[in-house]
Amino acid sequence: FYGVRLSPRKSLVIFDEVQRFPKARELVKHLVADGRYDYLETGSLISIKKNVEDIVIPSEEDGVNLDPLDFEEFLWALGEDLLAKAIRAAFEKRQNLPSGLHERAARLWREYLLVGGMPQVLTAYLDGKDMERADKEKRRILRLYRDDIEKFAEGESGRVSAIFDELPGQLSKHEKKFTLAAIDQHARNRDYVGAFFWLGDARISNNCFNCTDPTVGLALNQESSSLKCYMADTGLLVSHTFADRRTTPNQVYKDILFGKLEVNEGMLVENAVAQQLHASGHRLFFFSREGESAQDRMEIDFLIANFEFSYICCQLFKRLLCGK
């Protein structure tokens, strides 16, 4: 129909915005069985999951999760490939970067905290390094998130919106565990479980659960009623934090970037660490222990299951708990 010659086993057919026509998704099964070409489906995750009522989901589908750009990919986009390689090499060797490279990387890291990793935002930023243009794109995405919540969250939309609006306030606290009392004094965890799940499943947030016993099987000791809720993209968190104004001028971003205007940088860094860990394929867990004295209280922001060191870490952790 389009006059395009397709070469068997060398051509890729892309179904863009496949959620608009679920039947195309169902019929991919037969196209794959035909065997001549490969197929890629793209679209909005929320609507893709919504529009499945009248179709049989083909078993031939392999899902690929796309996160916002991590810091390494951000450097690639800026043309800083050599710096990215130097950082990776230093990390693998457990060595410090030379001071000049470290200062450059630290400045670009602060830039990343403000811009974030949403591709359309980064494209706007790269056109003249204009933070204000990037901010407008981030606000557009946040508006789309709100529209999706209203459209697709169904009976959960009120609770999902309440959590979404409360995220900057919760993350700005020293104790970042989400406190439902900030939304409603009578709120119960069981009433909001579905709302937290919806935000995480829609890739709007990264949920980090309390692990009561930090051994190898972190998920086995997950306490679902105690969680931290991070924004999936730190750049979006910045614009969400400044939601009291329609736009954030370029000069405000520059003042933050060069340390002339103070923001809660700890909140941004912790959110960015959660973002990097999630992009690396880690589920997010933290450890928290309450106690009457300061010595008894303990919190570890993030736990990672590393099977090579798990036994040693468990032994060290037990010693820590015993005060040794």
Secondary structure elements and their pairing?
Layout: E1 12-15, H1 22-34, E2 38-41, H2 45-50, H3 71-77, H4 81-92, H5 99-115, H6 119-126, H7 131-152, H8 157-171, H9 189-201, E3 205-211, E4 222-231, H10 234-241, H11 250-257, H12 265-279, E5 284-289, E6 298-303, H13 310-321
Parallel strand pairs: 1-2, 3-5
Antiparallel strand pairs: 3-4, 5-6
Verbal overview:
With 324 residues, the protein is an alpha/beta fold. It contains 13 helices and 6 strands. The protein has helices at 22-34, 45-50, 71-77, 81-92, 99-115, 119-126, 131-152, 157-171, 189-201, 234-241, 250-257, 265-279, 310-321; strands spanning 12-15, 38-41, 205-211, 222-231, 284-289, 298-303. The chain has a 4-stranded mixed β-sheet with strand order 4-3-5-6. A two-stranded parallel sheet has the order 1-2. A hairpin with an 8-residue loop joins strand 5 and strand 6 (298-303). Helix 6 (119-126) runs antiparallel to helix 7 (131-152), helix 7 packs antiparallel against helix 8 (157-171) and helix 7 (131-152) packs across helix 10 (234-241). The longest helix is centred in the middle third of the chain and has 22 residues, at 131-152. It is globular and about 70 Å long.
Strand order of the biggest β-sheet: 4-3-5-6
Q: Could you give a short account of the major beta sheet?
A: 4 strands, mixed
Strand content: 5-15%
Order of helices and strands: EHEHHHHHHHHEEHHHEEH
Average pLDDT works out at: 86
| Distance from first to last alpha carbon | 74 Å
Total number of helices:
13
Extract low-pLDDT stretches.
none
| DSSP, total strands | 6
Helix content: 40-55%
C-alpha Rg, in Å? Answer: 22 Å
Structural class: alpha/beta
The coarse overall form would be globular
